[in-house]
Amino acid sequence: CEKQHPQEVKIQDFVDPELGKVIPYGVYDKTYNQGWVNVGIDHDTAELAVFSIRHWWYSMGQQLYPNSQKLMITADCGGSNGYRCSSWKLKLQELATEIERTIYVSHFPPGTSKWNKIEHRILGHITQNWRGRPLTSHEVVINLIRNTTTKQGVKVEARLDENRYPTGIKVTDQEINAIAIERNSFHGEWNYVIKPLSRD
Question: Is 79 exposed, middle or buried (0-12, 13-18, 19+ CB in 10 A)?
Fold first, then answer.
């Protein structure tokens, strides 16, 4: 920008009447020190959260772990991927059945999400990388995420998710009862396993 014509920027969330908003959902792979960020532009829903995991699996995960039998997910305790969210569990059930993998889930207890590795290794660095920079388009957001680097050498891939994720979708008792969930004896509300269903 020229000094005489500074670029106008938003001072808080990146929300624009035409561009919409950005909702980054990330996956951090500890083994390979790689990050994957799916940038939604509609609503923050359980469907978006699980789609982000699904897209990571098909884009990176299955190539890195072709012989895996299980998937381990750590997640915050609240929000669209929270332990109380029935839609989150239902969408994980669909994913487990689709990829034929057992999914282990551990939620960080309330107030402890700062210990989530993705916060330190990826999201914090992404926030620093775009601090003070005008987020003027989705392309700018994606490029800033992709160009995020750390001393630990984390590689981050990102994609724009233009899908629509409607809110207010109700999960029926029948759907909840059909989820093949096994709760851990230690805080089963936060630690549980979802097994793939038979496709017969």
Answer: middle
Reference 179, options 171, 191, 169, 187; nearest CA is 171
3 state SS of 129: helix
Q: How far is CA 172 from CA 16, 175, 177, in A?
A: 35, 5, 9
- Tell me the C-alpha distance between 93 and 197, whole Å: 8
Give residue 30's identity as a one-letter amino acid code.
Answer: K
Rounded CA separation 93/6 (Å): 49
The C-alpha atoms of residue 2 and residue 6 are separated, in whole angstroms, by 6
The predicted-structure confidence for 83-137, as pLDDT tens digits, reads as follows 999 999 999 999 999 999 999 999 999 888 777 887 777 777 777 777 767 777 8
Please tell me the distance from the alpha carbon of residue 161 to that of residue 79, in angstroms, as a whole number: 19
Q: In the structure encoding, which two tokens stand for residue 155, read together?
A: 């590689």
- pTM of structure: 0.85
Contacts of 131 (CB under 8 A, 6+ apart): none
